[in-house]
Amino acid sequence: MGKSRDNLTGKYYGLFSAVYSRFFFHVKSVYNKFSSFSETKKSIVLNGDSKIGIHHKTLMNIKNSKIVVNNGSLKIGIDFGYFDGGIYDSAKDRCKIFMQNSTLEIFGNVSLYPGVLIYAINAHIIIRNNTKINGGVEIISLKKIDIGEDCLFAEGIILRDNDGHQINSGNGDSNDSEAKEVKIGNHCWIGQRAMILKGVSLADNVIVGAGAVVAGSFSSGVAVAGIPAKIIKENVSWSA
Predict the structure, then answer these.
(1) Which of 8, 43, 109, 158 sits 20 to 30 Å CA-CA off 225?
(2) Are 158 and 136 in contact (CB under 8 A)?
(3) What is the distance between the alpha carbons of residues 32 and 188, in angstroms, rounded to a whole number?
(4) So which residues are the catalytic ones?
(5) Integer Cα distance of 215 and 163 in angstroms
């Protein structure tokens, strides 16, 4: 009997272990998804005649935070986005939203295309009516980011109000590492793979060229480009 048991253990133990491990993994996975769904549902506030649509493959981790939609609709990962002749597909390029002690506030109708990432800790992110955020855009906030109406964010943009790490100067002063509010005015077009850094304020109707790194603020009706971004044209206008 002992020999038979030894043979059984040696032959099948690894298989049984794998089966049990996979079973408990799936149980935990289902529990986590249910808990996440329950937490997400409690975190959504729809004011007025508002609606929200979230693609089922969107990854969301929301802790002590709110997604507030005011008199409009928010679409997360539902619309198709285009880049370089390709398409961001909601079935493959899922949105990722991580929020802790933060608020994502929507005014009017806003679309986050497949592949958008939002990361917010102790932050307030505002996105206003008729603004479209294409795939691959990363919005990273530790304070406040305010995006105006009728803006168009091309693919691969990085928008952040912080450095990501603390930087100390030679005299020990770390104030320069503090997060600083970012404000984007109405009807701004941010080009592909541009970077908008902390403390930036763009007035209405600003065009940011592809690949630009914007570290300063600009008045309305200008086109900026380069590293760091500088004015290349004035009295400009654009339409989608």
Answers:
(1) 109
(2) no
(3) 39
(4) 165
(5) 12
